[in-house]
Every structure is written in C-alpha cells, then in structure tokens.
Amino acid sequence: AQKITQTQPGMFVQEKEAVTLDCTYDTSDQSYGLFWYKQPSSGEMIFLIYQGSYDEQNATEGRYSLNFQKARKSANLVISASQLGDSAMYFCAMRGAGGTSYGKLTFGQGTILTVHP
Amino acid sequence: DTEVTQTPKHLVMGMTNKKSLKCEQHMGHRAMYWYKQKAKKPPELMFVYSYEKLSINESVPSRFSPECPNSSLLNLHLHALQPEDSALYLCASSQTGQGPTEAFFGQGTRLTVV
C-alpha cells in the first residue's frame, strides 16, 4: 500500500519570499514517481514537478524545486519568490510501479497556501 | 496539445436521472482515469483504463459506469445517484510505463445531485 502525508493543512507566506511545503511518503515499491500538483479554486489540477525514485538530482521547474530525500522518504516542494497567483491548494502525489499499485496516483491531504501582499 | 477536455463543466441532476460525463484527450495517452473529489479533500481514484481496458475499479458503486470507446475518449455514465455523490469529477490521462509520466487533468465536472 502507498501513503502520502502532508502535515501542513495551511501555510502563509509573504509575496516574494520562499516557502516549503512538506510531503512524506511510504511505499514498498522500489520504483515510483512523486508529483506535486496545484489546484486553484477553479478546480483544475495543474502539474508542477516530478521526481523519479531513481533520479539522483533534485527536480527543478522554474520557481519550483523538489527537495528529495529518499532515505527519509520525503519530497518537499520549495516555491521561490512567491507570487499572489500561487495561492491555491497543493497536493503531493505518488504513482507506483508494479502490481496493484501500477497506474494509481495516490494523493496526500493537501496544503492550502495563501500568499500575502 | 497537452489538454484534457471535460464536458459539461457543471451538471445538476435528479436522483432518477441518467446522465454522462465526457472526457477527451489527444496526447496519445493510453491510460485514462476518473477521480472523485469532495471539497477541500484530495481526489479519490475511481477507475483506471489502460489500453481501453478497465484495469482498476476502486470498489465504486454500480450507479457509476465507466466506458472507454476509444483511446481518446472516456465516459462516466451516471444513474440513480445520491446527494452524497455531489462532487468534482476529474478526468486524467497519462502515458503508460515508468518515467516522468505525469498525469494531465481536465478542469473537472462539478456535479450536484438534487
């Protein structure tokens, strides 16, 4: 079974500052993928960044970076230079490799990020 | 084209109605998904189709009936729903296999059952 834990129900950050959203995971799969999605109030799930379990370098996509610590089973999202448009719900998710977990995207409970001007 | 299109955007239906949600993608993805999402909760997987065959059914009640008529289309047929089925229904697609196979989501259908 796979499990994603996001322990921060809500986070606040000042515009232009950096913020870290926490994510820990548990899986028995050797190969897996970790994802972060942003969901504005409109409802669409927007893909932000991906980290593969065998990737040695931390993933980066523009202002987003993923702090991947495999031994600690954590995959924290770092948003640099926050913007007002970053205010949204953020989900950490995992996709398994084989058996019954193949193709399943398991989500954490989400973190609501509010960016203050 | 990295778009998943869902129709309708909003749907209100009575408990005796039959309706269908539609999802379309033209990215050549061979895996397609239906998720149900309640307010301020994470999406919950309902069904996974892989190469047009149902590969995962997460014990969803039979009043929800998925259909994948071809590799670009995914439908969710609704019949005799309950008010607690009101939610945001999200469709997604992805490549199959490993690697950076992120799932692309549509904007969802907001369903209200009255």
Description:
The complex is a heterodimer of chains A (117) and B (114). Chain A is mainly β. Chain A is 0% helix and 50% strand. In chain A, the strands form 3 sheets. In chain A, strands 2, 5, 6, 10, 11 and 12 form a 6-stranded mixed sheet that branches. A 4-stranded antiparallel sheet of chain A has the order 3-9-8-7, with no helix packed on it. Chain A is globular. The mean pLDDT of chain A is 92. Chain B is mainly β and 114 residues long. Helices cover 0% and strands 56% of the residues of chain B. In chain B, 33% of the residues are buried. The model of chain B has no long low-confidence stretch (mean pLDDT 92). The chains are: A mainly beta (117), B mainly beta (114).
The beta-strand count of chain A equals: 12
Oligomer: heterodimer
Mean pLDDT of chain A: 92
Distance between the termini of chain A: 41 Å
Question: In percent, how helical is the residue content of chain B?
Answer: under 10%
Query: Major sheet of chain B: size, sense and barrel closure?
Result: 7 strands, mixed
The number of helices of chain B is 0
Biggest beta sheet attributes of chain A: 6 strands, mixed
Q: SSE order of chain B, as H and E?
A: EEEEEEEEEEE
Which percent range fits the helix content of chain A? Answer: under 10%
The DSSP helix count of chain A reads 0
Largest interface: A-B, 27 and 28 residues
Cα gyration radius of chain A (Å): 14 Å
Structural class of chain A: mainly beta
Give the low-confidence spans of chain A.
none
Radius of gyration of chain B: 13 Å
The coarse overall form of chain A would be globular
Low-confidence sequence ranges of chain B: none
